[in-house]
Amino acid sequence: MTIKERILATLKGEPTDALPFVPRLDIWYNANSRNGTLPAPYRHATLKEITDDLELGYHAIIPDFKDFINPEDGDLDVGIGIYHLKNHPYRLKLHNVRRTHQWTGDGILKVRYETPKGDITTTVVHNKEMKKNGITLYVIREHAIKSPQDYAAMAYIFENMEVIPDYSNYSQFQQEYIGDRGVAVALSAMWASPGHYLIKELMAFDTYYYEQYDNPEEMDAFIQQITPFCQKLFDAAINSPAEIILSGANYDASFTAPAMYEEYILPALRQQSEIAHSKGKFIATHTDGENTGLLELYKRSGFDLADSICPAPMTKISLEDTRRIFDGTCTIWGGIPSISVLEDSMDDVTFQRFIDQKFENLGRGDHLILSVADTVPPAAKFERILYLQKKAREFGPVMPSL
């Protein structure tokens, strides 16, 4: 089987010839390539060349957040959670808003949006240290919505943000770059719903919960105003040639509390999953945080792929317990905590004992695409990635009960 065939068969609960192992290596590669510390045989190789040579598969769920359509100004809207990426299944065009920007200090970007309803300002950071560590995602230092007075201006911005379905770059990425190396997941948005968008990108953590308590009607009215924009993003993604659509990312019980998830996220993911299934497609969401209290809600959401499940000892829930709760209703992509591949966290004997025990507890191994969660860290010991690959190959074939 090809790696793509293994992934899709796993999602369908069908047999595979081996346990799929598709680690996310982009941050590891970016950091080591920049610092000249790639393993000797691959010192001048591209990431695709490395994964091809090792037959690892190419992880194509989370996009490269620096692969802009236009490198000159593609990052101007990241403060409102908008990345103008080359391989998106859509393009976004802002109308009737004056946008100005200024770079200051070490990778600090300040942006002002002037609208008839008021002005919005954001500040984001992508500095030298982040680049050194292979990080491509910006950090928001100043959020767009700071008080209820900002709702009208933000709503105006989204009402004037045109969503243009465009599958040319995505199709080329899917067919020519990824091919059978993996599955080219199409990103709908890094938030799963308009309510999730608020806490994920637009508001600081404390602002969100103060607003939920102090101004719930105003906040819900704003959510309704931006719903059409969010729906257009999903429509563009679900109608693309992609087999899997990524909707939402970065849940954690500490800020996407179960009650918040149930009210603002679950209904959207359930509806998106129903639409996807009617088209023979799958919905993935990036569940990389502390999932205590959330796993049963994930099951009720109906999505197909929990990407980047990070188990104990980095979180409170073991891989075994996560698989037991999901009970074949959702495929896990992940399962190996990133600290296990770091020498300063586990010595070689402890690592092998830990991994061997995990494999002994996998049962049939169905509905699992093995990966290091959330991502392979820059300081990972390369030999441990190869050991994980060896164990995955030896585990197969995977024969779920059909």
From TrEMBL:
GO terms for molecular function: uroporphyrinogen decarboxylase activity. Residues 205-394 form the Uroporphyrinogen decarboxylase (URO-D) domain. It comes from the Bacteria. InterPro entries: Methanogen_methyltrans, UROD/MetE-like_sf, Uroporphyrinogen_deCOase. Gene3D superfamilies: 3.20.20.210. This is Uroporphyrinogen decarboxylase (URO-D). One of its GO terms (biological process) is porphyrin-containing compound biosynthetic process.
